[in-house]
Specification:
Elements: E1 7-11, H1 25-30, E2 35-37, H2 60-65, H3 75-92, E3 97-102, H4 105-115, E4 120-126, H5 137-141, H6 159-162, E5 164-166, H7 174-184, H8 190-198, E6 203-205, H9 206-210, E7 225-230, H10 238-252, E8 257-261, H11 267-270, H12 272-284
Parallel strand pairs: 1-2, 1-3, 3-4, 4-7, 7-8
Antiparallel strand pairs: 5-6
Helix pairs in contact: 3-4
Length: 294
């Protein structure tokens, strides 16, 4: 890997894990980049499922009401986990990092960009929650531009009572599985969907959804930012993506550079080469490497 190039740090979204980047990281590495990922606190290998999920016969009522074992995970824990990884990536590369966040992972990369803007070559939202200062993810999810989102139909139980937003990715109900595929993976095969769904965890702690975005013009606003729009996204509709771009540009100043993929919510599975090409182009167009950010 070349130390003359910035490293990539790739952050997964809600209910997902670092495994989502398994098709993208080899492409970046083949082009000479370091590409680091992690499971956020409460996610992936760090997730703890409610005991009711494993009961047989399955008790739907118990699953919908059991308090989440990861309810105490905070946004600050996730932010600091990524800050640590970015520092490691910067030391391995040329001192700078392209920080990428998918979906709810956008809240974490915003917080990281606010804390350590000096280490970031660029921040990139992949159909991600990029929200103005003081606004939590939950408030943005309720915005009218998000009204066509399918993903809320997957939620099980009362998030306030259980301390997390819960889904049942292992459900055998045909209608529920069809909704899960349509929400996140509409443009991959059924076999690929089955594999992707098997890697999901059921609880997203409320801390990430309720923490207000901390971004300011002086710190976050100093980092070149990019947004990869996914035109067929049914989890974060395109209207919501464009609303967030406009809202942050209006309140923070500067311009977010848009990119577009004609994909559903998970192009790291359906279009990994096209996604990697955009990320590599963002690196190449950085003023630090002789390029020019539009």
């Amino acid at each position: 890997m070349s130390a003359t190039k910035a490293a990539f740090v790739l952050i997964h979204g809600g209910w997902h894990s670092q495994s989502v980047w398994s098709k993208v990281t080899p492409i970046l590495e083949a082009h000479g980049f370091m590409a680091l990922t992690l499971d956020l606190p409460g996610a992936g290998a760090n997730a703890v499922a409610p005991k009711s999920l494993g009961l047989r016969p399955f008790d739907a009522a118990a699953f919908a009401t059991e308090p989440s074992p990861v309810a105490g995970v905070t946004q600050e824990e996730r932010t600091q986990a990524v800050v640590t990884l970015v520092r490691q990536a910067a030391a391995l590369g040329n001192g700078k990092v392209v920080l990428v966040g998918h979906s709810a992972g956008g809240m974490t990369i915003s917080a990281v960009a606010e804390e350590i803007p000096n280490l970031l070559l660029a921040v990139v939202y992949l159909a991600g929650f990029m929200v103005p200062n003081g606004v939590p993810l939950l408030a943005m999810l309720r915005h009218e531009t998000m009204s066509s989102a399918l993903s809320p139909g997957l939620f099980v139980g009362d998030p306030v009572a259980i301390g997390a937003t819960r889904i049942n990715a292992g459900s055998t109900d045909g209608a529920y599985r069809a909704l899960l595929k349509a929400s996140f993976y509409a443009d991959i095969s059924d076999a690929e969907f089955a594999q992707a769904a098997s890697r999901l965890h059921c609880d997203e702690p409320n801390g990430g959804a309720l923490a207000p975005s901390p971004i300011t013009a002086g710190r976050f606003g100093s980092v070149p930012r990019h947004y990869i729009r996914c035109t067929q996204d049914c989890a974060i509709p395109l209207a919501g993506q464009d609303h967030m771009i406009a809202a942050v540009d209006r309140t923070i100043g500067g311009m977010t550079t848009p990119h577009t993929l004609h994909s559903s919510h998970s192009p790291f599975l359906s279009q990994p080469v096209a996604l990697a090409d955009i990320l590599i182009d963002i690196h190449a167009r950085s003023p630090a490497f002789g390029g020019e950010v539009e």
